[in-house]
Write a structure and sequence with these properties.
Blueprint (H helix, E strand, L loop, with lengths): L4 H10 L7 H14 L1 H17 L1 E2 L6 E2 L5 H4 L7 E5 L2 H10 L5 E4 L17 H9 L5 E4 L5 H16 L3 E4 L15 H9 L5
Helix pairs in contact: 1-2, 2-3
Length: 198
Amino acid sequence: MATSRLIGRLIESLRCLPGVGPKSAQRMAFHLLEHNRDGGRQLAEVLGLAMDKVGNCSECRTLSEETICSLCRNDRRDRSLLCVVETPADVQALEQSTGFQGLYFVLMGHLSPLDGIGPEALGLDLLESRLASGQLKELILATNPTVEGEATAHFVSEMARAHGVRPTRIAHGVPMGGELEYIDGGTLLHAFAGRQEV
């Protein structure tokens, strides 16, 4: 069956989402057109609003509708603790799971010279001014445990030390409920090297 040009554009547009291939995009498009046109209209409206109104917080760089996000505006947050993460999704994950009461700084990526991503692309000048402010006591590095994430953590930790701020790194290791025989070697190595007294 030949697909109309508009349906083809809808399918192609849905493919911009991560993990959505041609078949998934087609399934989504046909579902909206066949069974949930109201949902499709609502999705289009909210998507348009979000694209127009959501930007980055001027302090932490997470996604926000306001110039300064609600976390940065919250006077009850500990301003001496700053957690550095790669993405706004990381902020969400930490907020939902950890009870962390400090502030965040979102890099919007990681250092990757091969991809042309250097310190200026990560807003490290803004982070440097936060480090120089004298307010911070600890900088918690919560970048991903990838080669790029580790390189980024090392670079940022050197910046923190230069400003007299104590850099710390989140622990890496065996997940809760995990069995050692099924854990990859790199994770086991990190867990073993980071062992603590009990």
